[in-house]
Amino acid sequence: MRIGVDLGGSKIEAIAISPEGEERVRERVVTPKNDYPGIVRAIADLVVAVEAKAGAQGTVGIGIPGTLSPATGLVKNANTTCLIGKAFDEDLEAALGRPVRIMNDANCFTLSEAVDGAAQGARVVFGVIIGTGCGSGTVIDEQALIGNNAIAGEWGHNPLPWPTDDERPGEPCFCGRNGCIETFLAGPALARDHRLHTGQDLTPREIADQGATRGRLRVSAALAHGR
Predict the structure, then answer these.
(1) Homologous superfamily of 1-154 in CATH?
(2) What is the pTM of this model?
C-alpha cells in the first residue's frame, strides 16, 4: 500500500492507495500555522490514522510547497516559510520510524496527470497549482523536469508580465521581492483583490462559488431567452 500526503498552506491531506491503484482511505487536517514541529507531528499523526483505517502500513511520499536543495538537502523556496532551511525528510523519518520520499507538490501533481490523468498520452505536460501559493511543474515523456536547482518549471516567483501602471511595483512577496506572479494569482491575492474592489471579505472558495453561481444564472437566462 502507498500513502500520499499533500502538504498545503491551509490543509494537509493524505490518501491510501492499494497496490491496484484504488483509493482506500482519504483524510484531511488543518495545517498548523508557522509551526514547524507542529507540521511534522500533524503529518506523522495523519499517516498513522490513515493506516489504521486502511488496516495496513504503507510507503510514504509527500508533496511539499517547495523543494529539497540538491546542495544541502534542506527545504528551500517554500511558501510555508517555516519549512525553509529544515531537514524535513529526516525529521519526518524520525517521527514515523521509516523512510519517506519528498518531492515538490506541483511536480507530483503534473506527473500524476501525465501518467494516468487528464494529460495521459501527452509528451509534454505543464501543470499549475493555484492555492495558498502558486506553483507549477513540467513533465516530459513521463519524467518530471527537476533542473539543477530543483525548481525547473516554477513560475510563481517570476515577475508579472506586462504589468499596468496600477500593478507596479506589486504586493510584497514572502520571497523578498515585489510583484511576483504568486502575489496576483494565488488564493490570498484573489481574496485581497476581491476585498479591494467589492468591500466583501470572502475566502477564495466563496469567491469562486459566487462567480460560478452568477455564471450559471447568466447561462440559464441566455438559454431561456433563446427558446
Answers:
(1) ATPase, nucleotide binding domain (3.30.420.40)
(2) 0.83
